[in-house]
Amino acid sequence: MTLFGDLLQVYDSNEEQVGQTVVLGNRRAKLFPLGTGTQQAQIQVVIDQEGGFKRAEVIPKEDAPTIVPMTIESANRTSTQSAPHPIHDKLKYVAGDYLEYGGKKSKIDYHQDYMNALEAWVSSEYAHPRVTMVYEYLKKGTLIHDLVHSGVLVVNDQMQLVKTWPKEDKENKPAILSVVTGNDQLSSFVRFDTIALTPLWEDETVFESFFKFFMATFSNASGLDYVTGENTILTEKNPRFIRYSSDGAKLISGNDSSGFTFRGRFSDKKEVAQIGYVTSQKAHNALTWLITLQGSQIDGRVYLTWLDRKLSPTLDITGGSSNFLAINDGSNELPLESNVMFGQELGKAIHGYKTKLSQSNQIKQAHVLQLDAAVPGRLAVLDYQTIDLERFFGNLEYWYQSASWYAFAKIDSKMKLSFGAPSLKRIARAALGENASDALIKNIVSTLVPCVVNQRPIPYSVVQSINNRVCRPNSFDSMFMWQDTLNVACAVNRKFYEKEEYTVSLDKNSDNRSYLFGRLLGVMDVVESRALWAKSNNQGGGSSTRATNALRYMQTFSVRPESTLKTIHEALVPYLETLNNRGFYQKEIGQIMDQFKGGDYNDRPLNGTYLLGFYSQRQDLSQKKQQDAEVAKND
After folding, report:
1. 171, 520, 551, 584 from 588: Cα distances, Å
2. Taking the alpha carbons of 140, 144, 149, 150 in that order, is the dihedral positive or negative?
3. pLDDT digits (tens, 9 = 90+) for 63-120
4. What is the model's pLDDT at position 246?
5. Is the pLDDT of residue 473 over 50?
6. Contact 390/307 with Cβ under 8 angstroms?
């Protein structure tokens, strides 16, 4: 129950935010009051102070989320149960004339159950005047009649609510049919309001009134709360809608009394876990709030990080370093052109972030949570851990530094080469392919999360999958996608072989055979690409798009480097002869060959470090060409 205890602290530490809209970046969320949930409303009805109908309107989809007081039963009701929400609810509950306008008859009198529950509230010592106005109006039983005459609902000649509309008549289609599911007006959810400054569904005094009334209805339901260790009012039904508004999965559920839920370990579900109603409400509301504001999801799997009790702009650990730097810099445009600049900016960002957090001595830990549902009704905690704050940021900085490489980033509305660590989702796509399903992507992301927060090594299977894909350039839809995947491959291999301390800049002193073979491949790729470019330019055809032999033979090269390199070199000779500076390239190849240790120049398969040598060598030659061009320009 550590997770629920921590979530309880989140709620209690942010009580001033209850019912308020909190904005973090481009996300908005409310921390729900106790005894409430959220529903998507389609109709808004305003009642006057005498309990009369004032006006009504269709609610746009963007304004549909509505905080609704709920009982335990109504929060967990099914379509076959009668469990009314206390104020706002569907037409079959709130409309006394529901059957007159096409509603289906049922053995259950939903409206009467609703009115009985509402009457119990308004006649209690906890009654609220605004709720009483709604009750007085609904007693008249004319809701649908008033909605039809105000133009909100639409009827046919038989005064029945229409369920279809001609597709060709889109211009005259009623607004209500655009917001309800399946054109079924009878399924509309209605929220009520009275003439006041604060909307009824945002009035904290109404929520307090209902919660006091609801808690007074419990009798002899107390017991030991396993989270707090206190004797309190318990609940066997816990909230859903945790990950998103239509989520039916629950974290705590024990409704299988005849199957294999307990498998002989317990005689009763209460022996497994007991949780207090208030504790359950606070923990679930806090979790939903955190997920909405700062969680990320892939195919329903939630990745959430938060820092102790007070809400703070927390990074998405599945995102790349640019995500973290953007949060602290306030900008997504980060032209970090070198690893030195990146290291400086990363250090400043983490130091600045920790400085902000130090203003509150309560923040001592980071919390990392993963949730997912294997079936629609059950939500599982895949991983939950609390990490000392200093260790967390230390591990984060270490990951971003050791897994950093060049990558394409959108800077000044253009794609430019920047520097940083790729996101975990980008690494997963590099391993599985751009068209891989999110169901597969999320599994790799989950295996990489401990690599970020616990300094565990990247699984070799992930590294090998990326290396196998990147050595087949012709399998990519474009050379841009291949280059982007190569960037990720270099970042991952640099991290995987971090003990050898590879740098992004070319290491001319390295005698690692894979690295040296990669350098040779890089030189030959540059020679052929420049010869092709010069030939095409001289013929007035622009730059050549044909892949070089170095790229075409890359897969074979990674398995049999010596013999494949011989084949590439033989094909390269005619191209080399066309270049004025062929002597420079021949000398470069000779110097690399001289660095091989005895017996290393052979056909043994290469490891992923050849990609680092390949990339860095090409980058080094590219920079030299730019420098030579600048010198020639100045001369």
Report:
1. 71, 9, 19, 6
2. positive
3. 999 999 999 899 888 888 899 999 999 999 999 999 999 988 888 999 999 999 999 9
4. 81
5. yes
6. no
User: What is the Cα–Cα distance from 556 to 468, expressed in whole angstroms?
Assistant: 11
Res 358 pLDDT > 60: yes
Q: Which is more confident, 266 or 290?
A: 290
Phi-psi region of 174 (alpha: psi -120 to 50; beta: other; left: phi over 0): beta
629-to-588, 623, 626, 633 alpha-carbon distances in Å:
19, 10, 5, 6
Q: How crowded is the C-beta side of 412, counted as CA atoms within 13 Å?
A: 5
Mean pLDDT of the chain: 87
Residue 468 vs residues 375, 430, 617: alpha-carbon distances, Å: 34, 10, 20
> In this structure, are residues 31 and 176 in contact, taking their beta carbons and an 8 Å threshold?
no
Residues 6+ apart with CB under 8 A from 384: 2, 3, 367, 368, 369, 370
Indicate the pairing of strand 43-47 with strand 189-194: parallel
Q: What angle do CA 153, 155, 160 make, to 5 degrees?
A: 115
Q: Lowest-confidence range among 445-459, 522-536, 582-596? A: 522-536
Average pLDDT over residues 123-140: 96
Instruction: Please say whether the beta carbons of 597 and 552 come within 8 A.
Output: no
Q: How confident is the model at residue 309 (pLDDT cuts 50, 70, 90)?
A: confident
Secondary structure (H, E, C), 210-268: HHHHHHHCCCCCEEECCCCCCEEEEECCCCCCCCCCCCCCECCCCCCCCCCCCCCCCCC
Can you list the positions of beta strands (E) in 115-176?
none
Q: Could you give the C-alpha distances from 354 to 6, 24, 369, 393, in angstroms and in order?
A: 21, 18, 21, 8
Cα dihedral across residues 617, 621, 626, 630: positive or negative = positive
Q: For a pLDDT cut of 90, what percent of the chain falls above it?
A: 55
| Sign of the CA dihedral with 154 first, then 158, 162, and 168 last | negative
User: Closest by alpha carbon to 14, among 425, 306, 371?
Assistant: 306
- CB-CB contact of 147 with 96 (8 Å): no
Q: What is the pLDDT of residue 147?
A: 96
Distance, in Å, from the CA atom of 447 to the CA atom of 445, rounded to the nearest integer, reads 5
Q: What is the pLDDT of residues 27-70, one digit of tens each?
A: 888 899 999 988 999 999 999 999 999 999 999 999 999 999 99
Amino acid at 173: K
Residue 527 CA, chain-centre distance (Å), reads: 43
CA distance 543 to 536: 6
Q: How far apart are CA 15 and CA 316, in angstroms?
A: 24
C-alpha distances (whole Å) from 433 to each of 97, 204, 554 are 57, 50, 18
Q: Per-residue pLDDT averaged across 457-461, rounded?
A: 96
User: What 3-state class would DSSP assign to 123?
Assistant: coil
Burial status of residue 584 (CB atoms within 10 A of its CB: 0-12, 13-18, 19 or more): middle
